[in-house]
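Figure 2 data, in text form.
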Amino acid sequence: MKLRYAVVFEQTPNNYAAYVPDVPGCVSTGTTWDEMLAMIREALAFHIEAILEDGEPLPEPRMSIDEAIANHSEPIAEDVLDSYREFGEPAPTISTRFEMVEIEVPAPQVVQVG
């Protein structure tokens, strides 16, 4: 079964990070773009497989890229900015990218009782 989820990718001065807004807790990091892309695909597939194995409902891919952008577009918290100011450092520059990522997961198995 193929699923397509909106993914938020961020590049910081030190690494890349990604998360899937429709699948809470599904996050990953990588040192390069290619590694990050592979890692978030793997994390998403494992996350979905674990949910299905536990008999929980599949987190449907609902969010569009525009919705992911709107969901993500929150300013950096003032206390975080204050911590940078306290040490005389500029707040980190973060480049954000939004993409749809497709994964392949096994179809949920129907368990017959009886």
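Caption note: Residues 19 and 27 are 4 Å apart (CA to CA).
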